[in-house]
Design brief:
about 110 residues; alpha+beta; two-stranded antiparallel sheet; about 30% strand
Amino acid sequence: MNFASLFYTIGPDRVARRVGSLDEYADWRIASGPDACRVASDMIGKMYVSTIFLGFDHRHVGKGPPLLFETMTFDKDGKPMEQWRCSTWEEAEAQHAEAKAALQHSHLRVVK
Protein backbone atom coordinates (compact mmCIF):
# COMPACT_ATOMS: atom_id res chain seq x y z
CA MET A 1 0.00 0.00 0.00
CA ASN A 2 1.42 3.38 -0.91
CA PHE A 3 1.26 6.38 1.38
CA ALA A 4 -1.18 8.37 -0.80
CA SER A 5 -3.78 5.57 -0.68
CA LEU A 6 -4.31 6.25 3.03
CA PHE A 7 -5.99 9.64 2.47
CA TYR A 8 -9.73 10.23 2.18
CA THR A 9 -12.12 13.10 1.65
CA ILE A 10 -15.75 13.32 2.66
CA GLY A 11 -18.56 14.79 0.60
CA PRO A 12 -21.86 16.45 1.42
CA ASP A 13 -23.38 12.95 1.52
CA ARG A 14 -20.99 12.19 4.43
CA VAL A 15 -19.44 9.25 2.59
CA ALA A 16 -15.64 8.94 2.70
CA ARG A 17 -13.81 8.51 -0.60
CA ARG A 18 -10.19 7.49 -1.05
CA VAL A 19 -8.11 10.02 -2.99
CA GLY A 20 -5.20 9.37 -5.30
CA SER A 21 -2.64 11.73 -3.83
CA LEU A 22 -1.70 13.83 -0.86
CA ASP A 23 -2.10 16.92 -3.06
CA GLU A 24 -5.72 15.97 -3.82
CA TYR A 25 -6.40 15.56 -0.10
CA ALA A 26 -4.67 18.87 0.74
CA ASP A 27 -6.66 20.72 -1.93
CA TRP A 28 -9.89 19.30 -0.51
CA ARG A 29 -8.94 20.30 3.07
CA ILE A 30 -8.19 23.87 2.00
CA ALA A 31 -11.33 24.20 -0.11
CA SER A 32 -13.70 22.56 2.37
CA GLY A 33 -12.73 24.56 5.46
CA PRO A 34 -12.40 23.40 9.07
CA ASP A 35 -16.07 22.57 9.65
CA ALA A 36 -16.10 19.89 6.93
CA CYS A 37 -14.29 17.53 9.31
CA ARG A 38 -16.31 18.22 12.45
CA VAL A 39 -18.94 15.59 13.19
CA ALA A 40 -19.90 17.00 16.60
CA SER A 41 -18.53 18.74 19.68
CA ASP A 42 -20.06 19.32 23.09
CA MET A 43 -19.14 20.77 26.47
CA ILE A 44 -20.38 18.66 29.37
CA GLY A 45 -19.84 20.82 32.42
CA LYS A 46 -16.13 21.62 32.18
CA MET A 47 -15.35 18.52 30.09
CA TYR A 48 -15.36 18.36 26.31
CA VAL A 49 -16.18 15.70 23.72
CA SER A 50 -15.14 16.10 20.08
CA THR A 51 -15.73 13.86 17.05
CA ILE A 52 -13.95 14.56 13.77
CA PHE A 53 -13.24 13.10 10.34
CA LEU A 54 -9.50 12.42 10.30
CA GLY A 55 -9.02 12.14 6.53
CA PHE A 56 -6.33 9.51 7.00
CA ASP A 57 -6.72 5.79 7.66
CA HIS A 58 -5.60 5.19 11.26
CA ARG A 59 -5.84 1.39 11.06
CA HIS A 60 -2.14 0.79 11.55
CA VAL A 61 -2.36 -2.94 12.28
CA GLY A 62 -4.74 -5.69 11.35
CA LYS A 63 -7.37 -5.92 8.67
CA GLY A 64 -10.71 -4.22 8.40
CA PRO A 65 -12.32 -1.05 7.13
CA PRO A 66 -10.33 2.19 7.36
CA LEU A 67 -10.54 4.02 10.68
CA LEU A 68 -11.36 7.55 9.53
CA PHE A 69 -13.23 9.14 12.44
CA GLU A 70 -12.13 9.85 15.99
CA THR A 71 -14.01 10.74 19.16
CA MET A 72 -12.02 12.11 22.08
CA THR A 73 -12.99 13.32 25.51
CA PHE A 74 -11.02 15.89 27.48
CA ASP A 75 -11.05 16.82 31.16
CA LYS A 76 -11.46 20.35 32.52
CA ASP A 77 -7.74 21.01 31.97
CA GLY A 78 -7.82 19.84 28.36
CA LYS A 79 -6.08 16.52 29.06
CA PRO A 80 -7.27 13.58 26.93
CA MET A 81 -9.44 11.10 28.77
CA GLU A 82 -10.66 8.53 26.23
CA GLN A 83 -10.40 7.99 22.49
CA TRP A 84 -12.31 5.85 19.98
CA ARG A 85 -12.04 5.43 16.21
CA CYS A 86 -14.51 4.18 13.63
CA SER A 87 -15.13 4.00 9.89
CA THR A 88 -18.32 5.88 8.96
CA TRP A 89 -20.05 9.16 9.74
CA GLU A 90 -23.02 7.28 11.19
CA GLU A 91 -20.76 5.27 13.50
CA ALA A 92 -19.02 8.51 14.51
CA GLU A 93 -22.34 10.14 15.44
CA ALA A 94 -23.27 7.12 17.58
CA GLN A 95 -19.82 7.05 19.16
CA HIS A 96 -20.11 10.77 19.99
CA ALA A 97 -23.51 10.25 21.61
CA GLU A 98 -22.11 7.38 23.71
CA ALA A 99 -19.10 9.45 24.81
CA LYS A 100 -21.36 12.38 25.66
CA ALA A 101 -23.60 10.15 27.75
CA ALA A 102 -20.57 8.66 29.51
CA LEU A 103 -19.31 12.16 30.38
CA GLN A 104 -22.73 13.11 31.68
CA HIS A 105 -22.63 10.07 33.95
CA SER A 106 -18.87 10.31 34.71
CA HIS A 107 -17.97 6.85 33.39
CA LEU A 108 -14.68 7.89 31.81
CA ARG A 109 -11.16 7.93 33.15
CA VAL A 110 -8.11 10.03 32.29
CA VAL A 111 -5.66 8.41 29.83
CA LYS A 112 -2.13 8.23 31.28
